[in-house]
TrEMBL record:
SUPFAM superfamilies for this protein: P-loop containing nucleoside triphosphate hydrolases
Pfam families: ABC_tran
Residues covered by the ABC transporter domain: 8-252
Similarity comment text for this entry: Belongs to the ABC transporter superfamily. Ycf16 family.
Keyword Membrane among UniProt keywords: yes
Protein name per the record: Fe-S cluster assembly ATPase SufC
Organism expressing this protein natively: Melaminivora suipulveris
Length: 256
């Protein structure tokens, strides 16, 4: 499913929050149709990577490069990065009071379609597609007409992120603990959706510690982030090893 030329190329990315350097040097490639699992202890910089790539103003890139389909991602404003095809989920999706869920997603989708030179979707066509996707993800259709995430449970917020992902169909998706707060059916929905998106050429990075889901995702590679650097690279066996021993890794395991 992967291609020789990565969709997303990150080279020696360095990021500060305030006066503190969180990412010392991170490099990775995300190819079309590939799935990478990113693991790491709390504070290792996993969420920082996503927020920096998304263009969050509190995350200051001090060096390095990030290319999305050959385009300089770091030179773009946050909304331009989304239009270019980058999707970054929130670890804790916020409420947006007063903005209906279906209007929010349709506006985002039509902004992307405009950037690609496509005609916008009207409310009728969009709603039919949104209802179908919501049903597949186990999200009650009534929530399409409610303000974004207002009164949603943790699992419903994550399913709503999946709904956005399903409808926006980005080039690259970085999902920050998308399984958090999910029940068994929710995790199954994550696995099913990501398998479909990969078959359509979407590159995916999943931040997770949940071994059972990681095994079901069948990742191309597993990366361990430590102190702002990629400390280990492996396959699903690395995830299994971390699940057994934790993030404090014996030297011989890292060298192997």
């Amino acid at each position: 499913m992967t291609q020789s030329h990565p969709l997303l190329q990150v080279r020696d990315l360095r990021v500060q929050i305030g006066e503190r350097t969180v990412l010392e040097s991170v490099s990775l490639d995300v190819a079309a149709g590939s799935l990478i699992v990113l693991m790491g202890a709390n504070g290792s910089g996993k969420s920082t990577l996503g927020m920096a790539l998304a263009g969050h103003p509190n995350y200051h890139v001090t060096g390095g490069q990030a290319l999305l389909a050959g385009q300089d991602l770091l030179a773009l404003e946050a909304h331009e990065r989304a239009r270019a095809g980058l999707f970054v989920s929130f670890q804790s999706p916020p409420d947006i009071p007063g903005v209906k869920n279906n209007l929010f997603i349709r506006t985002a989708l039509n902004a992307q379609r405009e950037a690609r030179g496509e005609e916008p979707l009207d409310a009728f066509d969009f709603l039919a597609s949104a209802k179908q996707s919501a049903q597949a993800l186990g999200l009650p259709q009534a929530m399409l007409g409610r303000p974004v995430n207002e009164g949603f449970s943790g699992g419903e917020r994550k399913r709503n992120e999946l709904l956005q992902l399903s409808l926006l169909k980005p080039r690259v998706a970085l999902l920050d603990e998308i399984d958090s707060g999910m029940d068994v059916d929710g995790v199954r929905a994550v696995v099913t959706l990501l398998a479909r998106l990969r078959s359509e050429g979407v590159g995916v990075v999943v931040i997770s510690h949940y071994l059972q889901m990681i095994e079901q995702l069948e990742p191309d590679s597993v990366l361990r982030l430590d102190a702002g650097r990629i400390a280990e690279t492996g396959d699903v066996e690395l995830a299994r090893s971390i699940a057994q021993t934790g993030f404090v890794r014996p030297r011989e395991a890292v060298e192997a």
